[in-house]
Amino acid sequence: MSTDYTADEMMSVAAARALAGGKSCFVGIGLPSKAANLARRTHAPDLNLIYESGCLGAKPSRLPLSIGDGELADTADAVVSVPEVFNYWLQPGRIDVGFLGAAQLDKFGNINTTVIGSDYHDPKVRLPGAGGAPEIAASCGEVFVVLRQNPRAFVEKVDFVTSFGHGTGKGDRERLGLPGRGPTLVVTDLGLLRPDPETAELTLTELHPGVELDRVVAATGWKLKVAEDLKTTPAPTEQELQVLRDLEKASA
Amino acid sequence: MAELLSLEEAVARLVHDGDTVALEGFTHLIPVAAGQEIIRQRKRDLTLVRMTPDIVYDQLIGAGCARKLIFSWGGNPGVGSLHRFRDAVQHDWPVPLEIEEHSHAGMANRYVAGASGLPFAVLRGYTGTDLPAQTDTIKPITCPFTGEQLTAVPALNPDVTIVHAQRADRAGNVQMWGITGVQKEAVLAAKRSIVTVEELVDELHPRPGAVVLPSWAVTAVAEVPGGAKPSYAAGYYERDNAAYQAWDAVGRDREEFTKWLNDLTGVTA
Predict the structure, then answer these.
(1) Local structure of A243: helix, strand or coil
(2) Which of A241, B84, B173, B248 has the most CB atoms lying inside 10 A of its own CB?
(3) pTM over 0.95
(4) With a CB-CB cutoff of 8 Å, which residues 142-161 of chain A face chain B?
(5) Closest-CA distance of chain B to residue A84, Å
């Protein structure tokens, strides 16, 4: 085992491990794309990557610079229009996993990428907006969220619900008729969180090696629940780190 | 039949102050040169439409061309935020910017309805989010057959849509390939359209998976080699990533941006 890795590398490796081969995964640019491409190069070679620009089954040789990167189109099984990717592929529930980032995430897994501040018309910070995320969060079989953990990002309640997680608790998704199971895993640079089966509140279930519990509690903007059988994430293997670094090098 | 015009003439004749204007291109084939021509001609009070407003929209907003933006994701793709867009929303600079905000699925379906000649589109979207409370063009609708609660979004019919494509022939038939996003729908939804192309050719050779817009569906075609730079044009050039990164510093600062704008428009400070 190597101990010579960064917290970001641990996060990417942990996120990649969550993806299983044979599944289809709707991938956003950035951390999700990095993790998905790492998974495809290690334990999940037949992971089916879907990008919202209309690339189905993309097999990029490097990380795409943006969603419109020709590398995605050139290596895809099919390139379809944007209306088609949302209407025919995402909406009917054909995609197993949605992999999303977030600016703010709350304790029920609701995602904000719209505005920081309580006044939509006079925001403290204007963020990029929804993109494909609301419907990805609604319609994929389940959702993995990946983001760095700090009290500004991990808030009790998001300022704006751009993408629905578990609302105010268990049962909200069913009441609204949302087809997918919602966020089932959150991967951060400090550990892993999963919704409590009874309440749907995000609960720390794994700590990354060397991370103190106090640090995770301090990085969380709500009173963090911790699983009774809190585990430690296995450190990245030499092979995982090598593949990740090669991937980043090829993409620089 | 599409007319073959210069870009300058096409923008002068087809884009008017106060128009609703869509420049589409899903991160690939972005009509950057056309957007900058709109800035040069100092068009005003535009309602700008685009699913993914990126740096050319940052430039249009910073130059004061837009009164309103209809969009679903605004950022400098792979780099960060759009600072001119942020400045307009957070500080009304240089002019206040009204926003009408959707998701990608909502915007794509609005163009589909527009292209289909229908008043609205139906999708299973937005449920549980805060978007419907802020956007008047997202409404619940009940399926008349099953009773399911769905979402309706109205058709988008821009006064003019502008897209960039790889090729056109001299009759004005347009061919584009690679990631073609929502461009076909945006052109067919519009009252008028301008297509800038990398090159005019005598004959269009078929390409698998290509989108062809027949001449009679397009108003004007303008030959603008490099018209999508610094974005991609599959078969012609890759994205100039350094230019996207460099924009971050220019867009971040009003003074730097004003210098850039003066250079573009030929105004001496």
Answers:
(1) helix
(2) B84
(3) yes
(4) 160-161
(5) 9
